[in-house]
Amino acid sequence: MSVSLRDRIVLITGASSGIGRVAALKFAQAGAIPILTARTVDKLLEAAAEIRETYGIEAPVFALDVHSDQQVQRVVSEVLDRFGHIDILLNNAGYGLFEKTIDLSVEEIVDMMDVNYFGLVRMTKAVLPSMLTRRSGQIINLASLASFFATPTHGVYAATKFAVQGFSEGLRYELHGTGVALSTVNPGPVDTPFFDRADRTKLPKVASKFLSADAVADAVLRAARERKPMYVLPRIGRIGIAFRHLFPWVYDKVMLSNS
């Protein structure tokens, strides 16, 4: 079953660039009203102007740092006051540092977990009560293939995404029968400004091909229409997930050859 996205209120974190920005444009193209949030307001305003000029839709802009409980609560309250409800929450904000664990400071590790995992939890906790009251809504969590594979120099980043996957799976079971759906979108490496911080030269050899932000945003919209639990990109990634569980000794050899 495919759900219409017309007039849906879609709150997007990390909407200033990359997957979040492209997803916002695609939601607007589908007739939804994207709510744009990120720390960089100037880029949000540029995205909102493009949405207005291209699709004739006003996309509200909110400065939001998902580190902050106060900012999360304030923005969600303002959106609910203005629109009355949120149909879809797209938890997209996040970043990665690809280094050996010994080379990362504790502060860097804590901050990555705070944004990638706790930021997503903050947003979910703020939005979910209103969805449960209406018995309607969807949470889409942008996870990663790193939710399933901890490769060399990716252990800390993978830990944040393992946490997202575990949180999402448990919450999805809790939401059964409530009218609220939860989906994860799990892409491999994506050619976005994410790699302004993450060192692409430290990607494992098996992850040398990059997806486009456009392809991942398409998967996000499929998730919004179909409401299935999990989307993996590229599809061959599903084979990799199965392979590591069916042949763990071979998987270990492959990973060690990338160390």
Key words describing this protein structure:
259 residues, alpha/beta, Rossmann fold, seven-stranded parallel β-sheet, 7 strands
Tell me what the structure shows.
This protein has 259 residues and is α/β, with parallel strands linked by helices. It has a single domain, classed as NAD(P)-binding Rossmann-like Domain (Rossmann fold, 3-Layer(aba) Sandwich), CATH 3.40.50.720. Helix content is 49%, strand content 14%. The protein has 8 helices and 7 strands, in the order βαβαβαβαβαβαβαα. Strand 6, helix 6 and strand 7 form a beta-alpha-beta unit. Helix 3 packs parallel to helix 4. The protein is globular, with a radius of gyration of 18 Å. Keywords: Oxidoreductase.
Quick overview of this protein structure:
This protein has 259 residues and is an alpha/beta fold. It is built from eight helices and seven strands. The protein has a seven-stranded parallel beta sheet with strand order 3-2-1-4-5-6-7, with helices on both faces.
